[in-house]
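hiii, so i know i said id send this last week but things got crazy w the move. better late than never?? heres the sequnce for the chain we talked about at the cafe, plus the structure i predicted for it. fair warning i was half asleep when i ran it
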Amino acid sequence: MVMNADTKNVGQSSAEVNDNIDLMALLFTVLRGWKTILFFALIGLLIGVLYGRYVNPTFKSDALIQIEENSQGISALGTSASELIAPQSSKAQTESELIRSRMILEPVVDKLNLRIRLTDPSIGYIDRIKNDRVATQVNTPDGVSLQTKDGDAQISQFNVSQAYLNQTFTLTKSETGFVLSNGFDDFKGQLNKSHLFKGIDGQIQITVTDLPNNSHPINLAKQSLQITTDAINSKLSVIEQGQTGIVELSMTGPNQEQVSLILKEVILSYIEQNQSRGSEETTKTINFMETQIPDLKQKLEASEAVFNKFRENSGTINIDEEATILVSENSQIDSQLNELKLKKADLTTYYTEEHPLVIQINDQIGVLNQRQEDINDRIAALPEIQREFLKLSEDVGINREIYLTMLKNYQQLKIVKAGQIGYARIIDLPINTFNAIAPNKLQIWVLAALLGTMLGTILVLLKSLLRNVIKDPERLEAKTGVPVIATIPRSQLLTRLNKSKKSSNRLLAYSDSNSLSYEAVKSLRTSLMFGMPKESRMGQRAKVILITGESPGVGKSFISSNLTEVFAQLNKKTLIIDADMRLGELHKVFNMSQDNGLADYLQQNDHSIADVVHVTGIDNVDFIPRGKKPHNPISLLSSAKFNTLMTDLNAHYDYIVIDSAPVLAASDALVLSQYADKVLMVTRYDNSIEGQLVYAVNQLKKSNVQVDGIVLNDVQQGIMSKYSYHCNYAYGNNQ
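okay and structure toks below
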């Protein structure tokens, strides 16, 4: 079989319509739960407001430093010396990590006593919310202080043994001073006096300057260095701005002045360490020269003395041109050897003998030594006096050259060290802005309300998914196989009257006669009249209508009473029976007592039909209440006496409406259905569970009871209802 194009298009259109219906149903489900969503949105907003007050404001301080690429050091010795040592560069990224190290932070921690922690245990969650901001400790070089409602706490010194680190102590003011307790030991001391206590786990050194009055407790702890530096690093940010070598430092905290002070001390600590590192190699070279200069001077003086004595004893000796050249070259070689040895000594303070620069110098020294041996061999061929003269004059020249060179370099390095400033400089120090960067209360409120709205929406959707309440009449007919013969809209006026309990009669005819609800009940009456068999099941006059529901609270009594009233308007003699002898409440609708009712007639032989049938005051309407609650309602309904009652009543009434107990709660409807010409199942819109109704209908079918129609009660109108079968107007006299 080939499907034509039109058929395909129709199928696609149907699928699109179904998708749109499902999306609309989902939207309407959310809109119907607007109260739940609004409730959770308000709860979320309330939590956001409380959180905004609970959290202390956060302040930020920032600063800038510049990191230069290259450092100046031993290059002051001259080009030849500095080129032997690889240039050391200081990258901004490397320095950024160095700033966060314990080498930089530890001096700051010690100077500002940051390892001492003071807290006020009397401040609870309610206090934080009520005050919107709580005081935090202030650290200075003089100590740590904390403001409380009963005064300030000030600690200028607190040192403990390793075992007491990160333990919480309690400080309270006493008549003579203070009491320090850790739960095991109590140490007593005086204010403004240093104390050294010996506890179970070690020593405690403390100096307390001031404490709050009224025995206000203060929690005191000494943190480990690692925890303290980690806490600083968690609030410290060090970021290079691009590739400029400019490093931005920022720090956050609950106290603006405290944050600025800590950040300033971090910067100063880094600059001090930077300057110390920048002059380290210069200082080492100067120290080495200071040990060598006295020895060189002594050697020069000794060589000069020996040379002068030789000249006195031997007189002046003429040296030919060759000897002069040899002596001059030998002198230069000695000068170069001493310079290389000086450079090697300086290099070995940083590197080992296997370093390429040290090996290079060793090779140069080897070459010069070989040349010097050749010169010495040639000098050895000269006459002895000439050789001695050359040797002594050479020693004097070499020692003088080495001494003068060392002295010159020494003076140069001292000048360099005096002007050395390192390769990092401060551009901007932190300043106090007193502008809180967090919390952003408006943003918190909006996010909290949105989260509450999302949670409420999810709960509404989950509730709708899990409960699967009755909303769609077409779906209901498909599930049960029973037609929905009426949809009764909610009467807003009657609903308000029932809540206020001011209405003496809850029938629509007297409370809301112009409503859609009343018109829908009349439509139900018309449907029943045309669908009623010509002869009743009892073979007599009356047509019997049995009204039940799948569970309590669906409004079957409301439908029964109002349906009875609209039948009576046709001048038909009508009787309504409250057959729910357990929890029936029809007597309240008619403002009557439940006594002398159906249960009394079936249990007691002295009650006649006239005793239990009551006139309601409504034309053509009589009423049989439920009577006193029996122990065996189902047995009474199955008795021959009830059969006789129904036979007698059929002869006197045109319509009999029986209000039965719910199907899932009792089996009364199964017994009563044998007397009924029509069996109606009442269910409540957007409240009854679809599965329960289907199960109740199936239970009746299993007992060969045919349900003739379903009445969908309490249908709420408006755009939030996907299935609204009534226009929002009343047809009749509106006043």
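btw Residues 1-21, 71-77, 79-90, 722-735 have pLDDT under 50 and may be disordered. thought thatd interest u
miss u guys!!
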